[in-house]
Amino acid sequence: MNLLAPTTPGFRLASRCSRLQPSAIREILKTTASPEVISFAGGLPAPELFPVAEIARAAEAVLAEDGAAALQYGLTEGYGPLREWVAGYLADTAGLRVSPEQVLIVNGSQQGLDLAAKVLLDPGDIVLAENPAYLGALQAFASYEAQVIGVHSDAQGIRPEALRRALETAPRRPKLLYLIPQFQNPTGTSLAEDRRRAVVSLAAEFGVPILEDDPYGRLRYSGVALPSLVSSPEAADWLYLGTASKILAPGLRVAWLVASDRAMAERLVTAKQAADLHTSSFTQRLVWQHVRRPGLLEEHIRGLCSVYGWRRDAMLFALERHLPAEARWTRPEGGLFLWVELPPAIDATKLLAEALREQVAFVPGEPFWIGTPRRHTLRLNFSNASDERIEVGVRRLGAVVRRALG
Amino acid sequence: MNLLAPTTPGFRLASRCSRLQPSAIREILKTTASPEVISFAGGLPAPELFPVAEIARAAEAVLAEDGAAALQYGLTEGYGPLREWVAGYLADTAGLRVSPEQVLIVNGSQQGLDLAAKVLLDPGDIVLAENPAYLGALQAFASYEAQVIGVHSDAQGIRPEALRRALETAPRRPKLLYLIPQFQNPTGTSLAEDRRRAVVSLAAEFGVPILEDDPYGRLRYSGVALPSLVSSPEAADWLYLGTASKILAPGLRVAWLVASDRAMAERLVTAKQAADLHTSSFTQRLVWQHVRRPGLLEEHIRGLCSVYGWRRDAMLFALERHLPAEARWTRPEGGLFLWVELPPAIDATKLLAEALREQVAFVPGEPFWIGTPRRHTLRLNFSNASDERIEVGVRRLGAVVRRALG
User: Fold this and answer.
1) In whole angstroms, what separates CA A279 from the centre of its chain?
2) Model's pTM, two decimal places?
3) Are A346 and A404 spatial neighbours (Cβ–Cβ below 8 Å)?
């Protein structure tokens, strides 16, 4: 299978295209998206939990009350009342005090990653990130030809001593430190409380802005809620990304990119104007109509946490029963994913082909690694399948792993 | 007024940011968006013509029939039935025969411009464009540090002999030829039929792909409909941009970028994946629910053409009555804009301050020019104001111009 994009004879491509390759994994999984396959591969919310009736009510209200504005061009910065709501929501739930002028509404977190990269990264610039790291962020950085350096991370998140070493030895001062401090994608681990101050202080000491990506922070099933990393008093310059995708619905493509100073926020607005003018006036108002109703969002999040927590437990239980004793996995307190380390003899990318024959899918760890991949790792999603299917799927996975071990 | 974005002390910006400045004009106009001002400045469709009730019906149907998918993540390429509809629509209305696999759904045409630039343009690469040209396209090209060379254009569009000279004398082979062949923004002019073959053949001869931007093609109020430029048999490599913004509603942010070959379409998909994963699953389905109903879209376009054509005539009539004899303007057969050339003594950017005091707004020609601006030019929009307000606004404009002439 040729995974490079085919050549485009009449078009002469920009040099960044050599860094922008279609994802091999995505292509493999696309060809096998049949309902018989139990998929732990995507990062999809459970569709049966979408508040479809509430969104329908919100759509009706938006079009009845404010239809012309919802269908017209809007400001690049975003819909004013939604930006105000985001500022209040971050104060209430993430300990982050910002003004609405620091908030830019974007088409999902991925656009926030793209705009941050567009404004900050020249070819060859350095970004530090946890290793392994979120694939979409790696793609966004690659599309501006940045060099990502992976920092050793463990079950408590990024290691401060490894971060200091990376900061001291980087060939140039890094432009960004990219982190998912809560329920990281792909590992599901969180940055431990006793590491937070060290990480934030190191970034400030070396003059490296933090990009905190926080799509899952509200999806906590055990342990104690923590404020956002960049709300620490030690934090200097930062960007923060939140989204409606995981707490409401990803199909609306509404997220928020927040900057620690207004000048940077204005730069991001200018970049977004050139990128797509603005995010849908209609979907921004839909989200606002939903979240403005007292208690509705919090009730929905409680429902999500209850179901996803149950599914996480079902997966942990099934892994215990079906995976060989040599396998290890993370025990996330929230989010959508956990991370499995198989015996080193197993290449998870090769295992995927076997697994698909047994009608179970996952994402091999390989593409998430910066530098040399640890090929015996894989990512499992537990939000998208029922607990019964989780049990069956993990049993199938266990059989495939045992067979691979011979 | 300081139009440069303020400095961002803790963030070190990418070099492209020096090319990405907030639009001076936009900032001036934003501060004066009061209802007393009669604005010919924006490019806004008439909000009173939005099919709000039909969109509400479509929203209800989407959520009732396909709610979970409308709220879930979707394919980067776009919603399948919408891509199929676009292929059929282009065959029916633009003489363009493409497969749905060549169609990428984007968040408005601006994102199409951004993705084309991202895939094709390295810093210093050359883009040829009509002069003056659409500001949003110039911003997209600038954000990838391309060099845009303006090609002399007149009331019949880009001049083939000027295009040949530009192709022969460009320091490097241009990566793109950017054109709005129908009802251009900002001038309202169209590429004359007897120039089309020459333009397309020159692009093919010199191996320069055409990017045809066609937001207004269906908004024709007089003259004979023409197929898309790139449907010419002489066309070699091309990209084509169409949009629901002007025929339905810009607030939905749904447009389509079509490539002449599938390999290029795949490259654009990969770039879009890194940019924002996909366009809203919900608004894509909304558009599809609307356009799939037989006759509805065509009836709506007929209504738009009737009102906008009337407004165009009102503006042409008012210009005749109120502008001094030395002024010249274009007589567009469609679209949203016309272009005024005042006596050379007048600087339209300075005139705008005077005009705003008299409660009328326009966009000075200056930012649309590539290279040396002709400062006595300005753009007027005729779609967003009623014919009565057009008469009053042009009368105010005429008074300001006469006063400036002394």
Assistant:
1) 19
2) 0.96
3) yes
Alpha-carbon distance A87 to nearest alpha carbon in chain B (angstroms): 21
Sort out which chain B residues have CB atoms less than 8 A from A50's CB and list them.
Answer: 67-68, 71-72
What is the per-residue pLDDT across A258-299, written as a single tens digit (0 to 9) for each?
999 999 999 999 999 999 999 999 999 999 999 999 999 999
Does A349 touch chain B if contact means CB atoms closer than 8 Å? no
Q: Which long-range contacts (CB under 8 A, 24 or more apart) does B172-175 make?
A: B172/B124, B172/B125, B172/B126, B173/A12, B173/B126, B173/B206, B173/B207, B173/B208, B174/B125, B174/B126, B174/B127, B174/B128, B174/B149, B174/B206, B174/B208, B175/A12, B175/B120, B175/B121, B175/B125, B175/B126, B175/B127, B175/B146, B175/B208, B175/B209
Taking the Cβ of residue B3 and every Cβ of chain A, the question of whether any pair is shorter than 8 Å is answered with no
Residues in contact with B231: Cβ distance below 8 Å, sequence separation at least 6, in sequence order: B94, B95, B96, B97
Q: Tens digit of pLDDT for each residue in B258-298?
A: 999 999 999 999 999 999 999 999 999 999 999 999 999 99
- The string over B279-291, giving b where at least 16 C-beta atoms fall within 10 Å of a residue's C-beta and e elsewhere, is bbbbbbbbbbbbb
3-class DSSP state of A3:
coil
DSSP of B342-381: --TT--HHHHHHHHHHTTEE-EESGGG-SSS--TTEEEEE
Residues 6+ apart with CB under 8 A from B353: none
DSSP letter, residue B328: E
Q: What is the mean pLDDT of chain A?
A: 95
ipTM: 0.96
- For residue A33, CA distances in Å to A41, A81, A359 come to 10, 39, 10
CA separation for the pair A259, A268 (Å, rounded): 9
- pLDDT exceeds cutoff 80 at B23: no
